[in-house]
Amino acid sequence: MGTGTIRSLIFSNWIMALFFTPYPIIQGCMPELEELKSGICLGSLFFLSQAICFFALSKGDASLITPIMGTKSVFVAFFVSFFQLTGLPSTFTWVAALLSAIAVALLSWPQRNKLVSYLAIALGLLTAAGFGLTDALVPHLAQNSSPSQVIFIMFSTVGILSFALIPFAEKSILKFNFFADKWMLCSCLPMGVQAVLMSIAIGFFAVPTEANIFYACRGIWAILIAAWLGKKIGLHEGRVDKNVFQRRLLGAFLLVIGICFIPL
């Protein structure tokens, strides 16, 4: 829409950081040194994963990277189990994580055969691993101190590091296009809300794998909304061939089955 990918990311990170400013106010005190260290570590890892993700997208399109990102829930379960962190997944949660990864791949795999970039695949896996490690570490570090303070510092770090992206923005950060930027800024608001909700689930309740499995449901909603809008305004996503529809239906079914495994 003309807002610029990196420019949109900068504003998204800034707005996301603003959503977490009430945390220390609610806590009633300033973060301690250990909380600062934990938050900066998590925020830096999250920001680095974002950078790798954008580099991956520059080497291969989103239709290739998105299915690979479905492995994030598996990486979360792996890192939590390997390092014996807070929120160890049960056997059924492992099954749910594997099913959700397969489901995301089925839901978002491209319609047509395209040239495969092995570098993009490797970077996509590295991105999923980076975000997975971040989510695995959040409950462990947060539960050892104050979750609200650690998460506040984490996203404040992401917001501060985003200033380093300004020189790479596609156009001036302050040059606003009312039509395009209003939609970009509006889309940042639900992203901020989902960041808060995910941080509460992972940081306060220590369910990193389970939260990521539920979060994978966004794939179903994205397809349903795109299909509905496609009928309204002629988007291509509203018209898919039979094979793609069947594959997405199978993906949705596997995701629902995976979610059913979580309470077991």
Walk me through the topology:
Blueprint (H helix, E strand, L loop, with lengths): L4 H15 L2 H6 L5 H27 L2 H8 L2 H11 L8 H18 L9 H26 L3 H15 L16 H27 L3 H8 L2 H16 L8 H20 L3
Structural commentary:
With 264 residues, the protein is an all-alpha fold. It has one domain (5-92, 110-207). The protein is built from 12 helices and no strands. The chain has helices spanning 5-19, 22-27, 33-59, 62-69, 72-82, 91-108, 118-143, 147-161, 178-204, 208-215, 218-233, 242-261. Helix 7 (118-143) packs antiparallel against helix 8. The longest helix has 27 residues, at 33-59. The radius of gyration is 19 Å and the shape is globular. The mean pLDDT is 84.
Number of domains: 1
Provide the residue-averaged pLDDT. Answer: 84
Provide the helix percentage.
over 70%
Based on CA atoms alone, the radius of gyration comes out at 19 Å
Write down how many β-strands occur, each being a DSSP E stretch of 2 or more residues: 0
Distance between the termini: 44 Å
Give the biggest beta sheet.
none
Any key phrases for this structure?
12 helices; mainly alpha; single chain; 264 residues
What is this entry, summarized?
The protein has helices at 5-19, 22-27, 33-59, 62-69, 72-82, 91-108, 118-143, 147-161, 178-204, 208-215, 218-233, 242-261.
